Amino acid sequence: MAPPAAAVKFILPTAPQPGHTHCLYQYIAKDTLVVGHIEVTDGPMQTISCQITDMSNKKNKYWNNPTLSLEQKFAFTTHDDADVQFCFTSVMLGQARPSDVPQRRVSLHVDTGAEAQDYDKEAREKKLKPIEGDFLRAQALIDMITAESEHLRSREVSMRDVNESTNDRVKWFSLGTVVAFTLVGAWQIMYLRRYFQAKKLI
């Protein structure tokens, strides 16, 4: 399962069209709220885009920005249990010598599940005391951990069923192979016996 919060910083070089792409991956469960922000340093002669999709069979597209500004926020809810990929592409604008090729520093911060909720806003709207707001956050984290545990348990059951089915298939395949080799061996012995008898060698 995905951690409630994740942050990463990296250097993104640029290149002529189609540009240089760098992708980051995080597994996130279905129906999970994802909130994050991106920061990029200023720099000449390049433009940076970002596309957020998942690796499910549906290839869900969650967010796309063809020209990132210095700071950008995003939010979406996942549609499937899958690895979500955050891809950044830097394209060089105009001509530049290799020694002049700029680089940009990119910072990506992602909150998922309970950590993505704005509990301070909810506490203000409900006029809760600070300790009540903290309790609300703790309860949400407990609910998230419980849901993740149930999800892992269901995946374990599913994988166990697959393993048992595979083991049964391997067992019957092995048994069939042994029977086939036994029959082929018996046929070869009978064939050679008749051949030698016909040649009066035995």
From TrEMBL:
Database matches in Pfam families: EMP24_GP25L (PF01105)
A Gene Ontology cellular-component term: membrane
InterPro entries linked: Emp24-like, GOLD_dom
Keywords: Membrane, Signal, Transmembrane, Transmembrane helix
Domain GOLD stretches: 21-112
Topological relation to the membrane, as annotated: Single-pass type I membrane protein
Record bears the keyword Protein transport: no
Transmembrane segments: 172-192
Domain of life: Eukaryota
Protein location: Membrane
Keyword Membrane annotated: yes
PANTHER family in alphabetical order: TRANSMEMBRANE EMP24 DOMAIN-CONTAINING PROTEIN
Protein name according to UniProt: GOLD domain-containing protein
